Amino acid sequence: xxxxxxxxxGQRLVLDHRDQSREFTALWLRERSPDxxxxxxxxxxxxxxxxxxxxDLRLEAADVSGAxxxxxxxxxxxxxVPLEELLEVPxxxxxxxxxxxxxxxxQADFAAALQDDGALLALLEALHRDGFVxxxxxxxxxxxxxPLIDRIGPLRRTNWGGIADVKSVADAYDLTMTQRxxxxxxxxxxxxxxxxxxxxxxxxxxxxxxxxTLVDGYMAARRLRERDPVAFDCLxxxxxxxxxxxxxxxxxxEGPLIELDSQGEPVRVRYSNRTERVPALAxxxxxxxxxxxxxxxxxxxxxxxxxxxxxxxxQMLIMDNYRLFHGRRAYQLAGGVxxxxxGYVDRDSTASRRRVLRRQAEPHAQGEPx
Length: 370
Fold this sequence. Notes:
The protein is an alpha+beta fold.
């Protein structure tokens, strides 16, 4: 059953629905009114200037009308607001956090995702849920992953171009282009915005070692908060800088190693030992930060959270660069070449594609009964 009641002389509305109770201000309800005088019917964008509404606006009446609330405001405005808009139905499904013992193995087929919207949606849902997905059957050519990027994209271009090589070269401009191991890190924290998803495609892999490592940064943040709240708090507040510079490029940005959303939950992690530049903060602050960073480092490099993968030719790893730390073990070439290709796709286009595909897959979107 659904019940509503007004309080605070009509400036508040309390909605009781099953075991959920929520309270709304009259002004919030008025500016979200779905009528065509308030919101454009085609775009859903607001037509009125919300900042000009009376700050003391009141509701004079509120009644349940089927699957909506019928509202009458003191300024004479009337509307019906669908209950589903008020009951906090999540836009996105929850994420599944994992450690080494419980790590998932989300997989997808390149050709299927390229040809079928349902398969593409499954790939994108897995990527959102688990933070990564392993794609098989990618054509063994330099831009083999490009057609699937174009189904989601666009491809994010950087100072290195679009899709770039990841292989050992002489006079490497980045440590990625050597045979050394790489500590767990996130890519490009010196950019604004930071690239959202990393696409890593294996062409050949005649190497001893070179396994990829993955760590769920959200799980690492959760473990740190449970075990060392002081360290967790420090890493959400101190904002180190990050810098990349070469002959033609100079990039700088800053941000906390653990960034929280409005609900106090991790929404982005950063770690880049190669590019971090901590400012000369107060000594006491630095002492706390360095101890906190050490605690976080020990978590993200330990066996407890680390998943090991070795890509074979024709496989591709798509990783959430806001959530996962990735690295690799050092390698030696075994009479051949280790050649991977890497590109970036931003979060907004990826999330948009997933949400549109899910909406199209819903029964009512196909003209079937909801």
